[in-house]
Every structure is written in C-alpha cells, then in structure tokens.
Amino acid sequence: MGLTQRVPVLRWARLALGMPSFVRTGQIGDGREAACAAFVESTAPHGDIDAALSAIDAFARREAMLVNIGDEKGLLLDAAVRRAAPALVLELGTYCGYSALRIARAAPSARVVSVEFSAANADVARRIWTHAGVADRVTCVVGTIGDGGRTLETLTADHGVGVGSVDVLFIDHDKNAYLSDLRTILDRGWLHPGSVVVADNVRVPGAPGYRAYMRRHEGTRWHTVEHKTHVEYQSVLPDLLLESQYLGPATAPGDERPPTPHAAR
C-alpha cells in the first residue's frame, strides 16, 4: 500500500463536524490532539524521531484524522528542507508538532521556531518533541504574526529571528493569513535571497491570494514550483504544495511594494 489511502468517509465527517471548534480554538474539540501525544508516548521509543512520526501517521489513519501536512506532502517538505540546508527554520502553524518534527529530522543542525495561536496545541507539540528527543532545537511560540507586533518582537528578542536569518519558512496555519503574514515577514527583512518558503493546502482549503501573488511575481521576486499532491492521509482529494525560492526585492515594474532597506543580507 502507498503512503496515502482512499478517503475515510466517517473520520472525515467527524473532522468536518469539528471545524467550527478548530477555527475558534485550533483543536477539533474531541480531545484527539492530546490523544495523539499520548499515542506517541506509549508506542514510539523515546528519542526515536522516525518512530514518533510513524506513530502520528498511524494515529491519523486509524484513530482520528489530523490536520497536519501528512505523509505524502511531508516528503515534499523534507526534500525542500534538505535542499535549503537551513540553520534557522520559521514555521507558522504548529498544530501537534508533526511538520516541525519532520523539519528537525531533515535538517538535524537547524533550529526550528514554530508559531502557534493555540496554547493547548503548543503543549501537545512540546510533549511530542520532548518524547522524540528534539526539544532542545525545536521551540513553539504561542501567538500570531498578526497580533499587533507582540509575537514578532518575541521572535526577535527571545529567538534570534532577525534580518536575513530565516532560511526556510513553512506556512501551514490560517489560510487567509498566508499572504499577509508573508508580507509582514518580508517587511521585517527576515528572508534573504535563496530563502525557501513552503506553503501547504494552497488548493484545499485554499489560499488563492497567496497563489496569485506567487504567480504575479514569478521570476522577479520569486521562483515557485507548484507540487500537485493530495490532501493529507488519502489519495482522492487533490491539493497543492507551493515551494518558492526568494530571489530578493523586485526591480521589475508592477511590484506592489518598494524594497525595504533591510530586505536582503
């Protein structure tokens, strides 16, 4: 059997019923996130990243659907991270810590800083990272990029995120915030030419404004590859994962923002 499976209708139906809770709180509302952490702790050997990831995948397939990147798209994220060979990765959207764990495995010398608006999800992720043995290099900051500057200042003051420091940015949080948060990070100058931005779920649930932005600036500010793939943990519903390399401040006519003085290192 391949990485994915056909659509598990009943478990997807339960997930859909939990979406209002997820939008409000970041959790589905039935305790599945904490149950996932307990499953990892009880089934994966301590300090084994591969086993922890496999346990999360098994839980999502057999017990309760999770809204992390999943195994199929996870391989694309792994490859993008390895190509970038990052020292610092910034992630927007921690959920249960699965993608940060994949990033930590793909870049064993990198620091990973993940931003998550749900404190409960942050606790789940930290449990899993601790059990997998990566808590010394993977950190969760509770907040959002759009909270008026509090999280941005925390990232700078406490986690060393600054001008030209972010080698990989992984975006997998509120789809409506993909573009605005990317623009904020660009305005801060945190990316450098060669930085890689990976965005999940660009087709489902969808981030059309983000996709249009990357297409509009193809070859000027960005070079983007659109990976055709599937929504996590099934093989029917199509999705897109975008992998974009930052080329630097645009000089071509039509760019909607002038380059900032600190936009490259």
UniProtKB/TrEMBL annotation:
<dbReference type="Pfam" id="PF01596">
    <property type="entry name" value="Methyltransf_3"/>
</dbReference>
<keyword id="KW-0949">S-adenosyl-L-methionine</keyword>
<protein>
    <submittedName>
        <fullName>O-methyltransferase</fullName>
    </submittedName>
</protein>
<dbReference type="GO" id="GO:0032259">
    <property type="term" value="P:methylation"/>
</dbReference>
<keyword id="KW-0808">Transferase</keyword>
<dbReference type="GO" id="GO:0008171">
    <property type="term" value="F:O-methyltransferase activity"/>
</dbReference>
<dbReference type="InterPro" id="IPR029063">
    <property type="entry name" value="SAM-dependent_MTases_sf"/>
</dbReference>
<dbReference type="InterPro" id="IPR002935">
    <property type="entry name" value="SAM_O-MeTrfase"/>
</dbReference>
<keyword id="KW-0489">Methyltransferase</keyword>
